[in-house]
Design brief:
The structure is a single chain. With 740 residues, this protein is an alpha/beta fold. The protein folds into five domains: 2-110, PriA, 3(prime) DNA-binding domain (GIY-YIG endonuclease); 116-183; 204-383, P-loop containing nucleotide triphosphate hydrolases (Rossmann fold, 3-Layer(aba) Sandwich); 394-441 and 496-633, Rossmann fold, CATH 3.40.50.300; 644-734, Ribosomal protein S10 (Alpha-Beta Plaits, 2-Layer Sandwich). The chain is built from 21 helices and 32 strands. The strands form seven sheets. A seven-stranded parallel β-sheet has the order 12-13-11-14-15-10-16, with helices on both faces. Helix 6 (204-218) runs parallel beside helix 7 (235-248) and helix 20 runs antiparallel to helix 21 (707-722). The protein starts with a strand and ends in a 6-residue tail after the last strand.
Length: 740
């Protein structure tokens, strides 16, 4: 028998099949999806590869497979091949996402090994221990704990019982306890507290959503739903009850959350409802050993529920019944590195193959998702009321131009200052949000709020300081910046950009008595940083939490009654056609953190553009009116969902070669895509035109990417690599989240 093998390589030239003979002793062990080690070319070491087909004979003289390594399912191979075509990458790069973590190296000795722990046991029965004669209180505490919880690790003894290694050694010397070395899974949930939470009574809207989705789960049929509910409407409770129903039918569940910062809070509720044993966690902050052991628990059917970030969609469940994608509008579900996959699209592919149900949840759905729901491609289920009958917070929009007029140049407006002061006195909590996503500096008039935009694309122009030019990286429009505002002729044209540290320093000056905690990319470098910061804020009743986007998504803090948005314009003025959408989403999500229980909530949004429609509509959280306004603009300007945006990216150290390659690709794309009605724009430097000493260029194309267009794009990419371009890296991406 002959196996068709894809070699594990990033080289585009090796993204094809090679024939290998299957040795007799492996014929009953290997199948489509097996990972094998094979001799390849003149390499001395064996290469890793994946069997994607088995046939009876080959037209070539072939070598033999040397070794079987790991088996994947045929579905994995189908998925990898589909992803490779759709996301313009090698099949092997997609297969790697589906392999057991810690087993991806070619040499076995480099891989993750089973973890051996030292377990503590009582050496003699508890009733034979003369506990009164033991002097140390810590020793007594450990003996009492072991009587009820026999067999814990030394680490667990240190963390849970709060005893030192010397306490353990003292009891070993007294012949009271013993240490036994045993293999045990590295479990990231060890030490997590279990706070039991009861199933809540669903309101009528929640019941309708639950019953509708349940029917699809029971019928074993693929269906896709948008669970569209205002902030605090009880989407998580619907998730929990759907999961309970799914696992009662012996089916498995994947729950995706957009940020690792959300995982602890979601985990707390899930553990409280289902216990630790049924839950596995998968995200990048786990150690490779923890990810390996969690993966194996899933594979061996020891876990029924997986909670994790984007890559958890590849969890190796055999009987998948339900996929939940929480905060489905979030950008993090789209990978910005190879393979550039979208987790929502992958979920749909898997669910169709497995006859599973997909639930997309959000208070501010992605425009494309809502468009599909409005057009009947997916089923919309609405939750219009807050689950605990609390009211939406009162939102105030502060015009920062007026603050400047009265001489306030601080980051904190007069009204926000007064509200923070009042909140501190009442012992309530405040969240201050500063959105720093995106890299571009924008230029705006502080007199009238006018932002310099491209006349062709309605996109903020980016200032390139080295060339002293304003540029649009969609169509190539550029101009030298004016000294005066083109709208009101004022000289008050300024750059904008501020940071969370600067904000924290200002808060300390304004409110020296207030306790603060900061949550941004600088403060979450360690494992469990997210959880530690959020728990500290909640449990130590810290007055003010200052942070970036990670503080606004999905968190539930009963004592938060005030949220301040420091500069709403920073998201509004990104060089991206989704700037309005992202601004509305962020402001609605951040407003949803205030007044979630019996205490009334207040939100203050500071802006230089109080009349901007995404800012105005976020005041009432009126998503549907926002959608109706935005969808008309998208249609008029031919942006998604009415077309796709194709990005061809180029990077390398030789800028002349990049220019040459990008011009060649431009001509090839224009020639091949013109008949499909796709507009291809001239190559331009990327908005961030140099990273790590590598120049960056890109080509933008707009149109509908059909199957035929996808085939042509793949052929174009192959053509590029066949030309032996060594110093320029080229990639293709469709509807990228990061236009920088």
């Amino acid at each position: 028998m002959i196996a068709e093998v894809i070699i594990d390589s990033k080289a585009r030239k090796l993204n094809r099949k090679f024939d290998y003979e299957i040795p007799k002793e492996l014929e009953d062990l290997v199948f489509v999806g097996s990972r094998v080690l094979v001799p390849f070319g003149n390499f001395k070491e064996l290469e890793q590869g994946y069997i994607i087909n088995i046939k009876e004979k080959s037209n070539y003289e072939v070598k033999k497979i040397a070794k079987l390594d790991e088996n994947l399912s045929e579905l994995n191979i189908d998925l990898a091949r589909w992803m490779a075509r759709k996301y313009f990458c090698n099949v092997s790069e997609c297969i790697k996402l589906m392999l057991t973590p810690g087993t991806k190296d070619k040499q076995k000795e480099k891989r993750v090994k089973e973890k051996i722990y030292e377990f503590i046991y009582l050496k003699i029965p508890y009733n034979e221990i003369e506990i009164d004669k033991i002097r140390g209180e810590k020793q007594k505490k450990l003996i009492t704990f072991l009587n009820k919880n026999d067999g814990i690790t030394i680490k667990e003894a240190e963390e849970i019982v709060e005893v030192s290694r010397s306490t353990v050694n003292s009891l070993i010397e007294k012949d009271i306890i013993k240490i036994v070395k045993e293999q045990k899974d590295r479990n990231p949930l060890v030490g997590k507290r279990i706070i039991k939470n009861k199933k809540l009574e669903l309101n009528e809207e929640q019941k309708l959503a639950f019953n509708t989705i349940c029917k699809s789960i029971k019928d074993n049929k693929f269906d896709e739903y948008l669970l569209y509910g205002i902030t605090g409407s009880g989407k998580t409770e619907v998730y929990l009850q759907l999961i309970e129903e799914t696992i009662s039918q012996n089916k498995d569940v994947i729950v995706l959350v957009p940020e690792i910062s959300l995982t602890p809070q979601m985990l707390e509720r899930f553990i409280g409802r289902f216990g630790k044993e049924k839950i596995a966690v998968l995200h990048s902050k786990l150690s490779i050993g923890e990810r390996h052991d969690e993966w194996m628990r899933i594979k061996n059917n020891k876990a029924k529920i997986v909670i994790g970030a984007r890559s958890a969609i590849f969890a190796p469940f055999l009987n998948l019944g339900l996929i939940i994608i929480d905060e489905e509008h979030d950008q993090s579900y789209k990978s910005e590195s190879t393979p550039r996959y979208c987790a929502k699209e992958v979920a749909e592919f898997i669910a169709k193959k497995r006859n599973s149900v997909v639930v997309l949840g959000s208070a501010t759905p992605d425009i494309n998702t809502f468009y599909k729901a409005e057009n009947g491609e997916i089923t919309k289920l609405s939750l219009t009321k807050r689950a605990n009958n609390s009211n939406l917070p009162e939102v105030t929009i502060v015009d920062l131009k007026k603050e400047l007029a009265i001489g306030n140049k601080s980051m904190i407006s007069t009204e926000l200052y007064e509200k923070i002061e009042e909140n501190i006195k009442k012992k309530n909590q405040t969240i201050l949000f500063l959105n720093r996503r995106g890299y571009s500096t924008f230029i705006m008039c502080r007199e009238c709020g006018h932002t310099l935009k491209c006349p062709n694309c309605d996109i903020s122009l980016t200032y390139h300081i080295t060339q002293n030019k304003l540029k649009c990286h969609y169509c190539g429009y550029q101009k030298i910046p004016d000294k005066y505002c083109p709208n009101c002729k004022s000289e008050k044209i300024r750059y904008f950009g501020m940071g969370t540290q600067k904000l924290e320093n200002e808060i300390h000056k304004l409110f020296p008595e207030a306790s603060t905690i900061r949550m941004d990319i600088d403060t979450i470098t360690k494992k469990n940083s997210h959880e530690d910061i959020l728990n500290k804020f909640k449990e130590e009743n810290i007055d003010i939490l200052i942070g970036t986007q990670m503080v606004v998504k999905g968190h539930h803090f009963p004592k938060v009654t005030l949220v301040g948005v420091i500069a709403a314009d920073s998201s509004l003025n990104q060089e991206d056609f989704r700037a309005n959408e992202r601004t509305f989403q962020i402001l609605t999500q951040v407003a949803g953190r205030a007044g979630r229980e019996e205490l009334p909530g207040n939100v203050i949004i500071q802006t230089y553009n109080p009349n901007s429609f995404p800012i105005e509509l976020s005041k009432t959280q009126n998503y549907e009116l926002f959608y109706q306004t935005e969808i008309k603009l998208r249609k008029q300007l031919k942006y998604p969902p009415f077309c796709d945006i194709i990005v061809a990216g180029f990077s390398g150290e030789n800028e002349n070669e990049i220019k040459s390659v990008s011009l060649y690709v431009y001509k090839m794309l224009e020639k091949n895509l013109k008949k499909y009605g796709i507009s291809v724009f001239q190559p331009m430097p990327a908005p961030i035109d140099k990273i790590q000493n590598k120049f960056r260029w890109r080509i933008i194309a707009k149109g509908i990417v059909t199957k035929d267009v996808n085939i042509i794009l793949n052929k174009c990419l192959k053509n590029i690599y066949d030309k032996n371009i060594k110093n320029t890296k080229v990639y293709l991406d469709i509807n990228s989240n990061n236009m920088a």
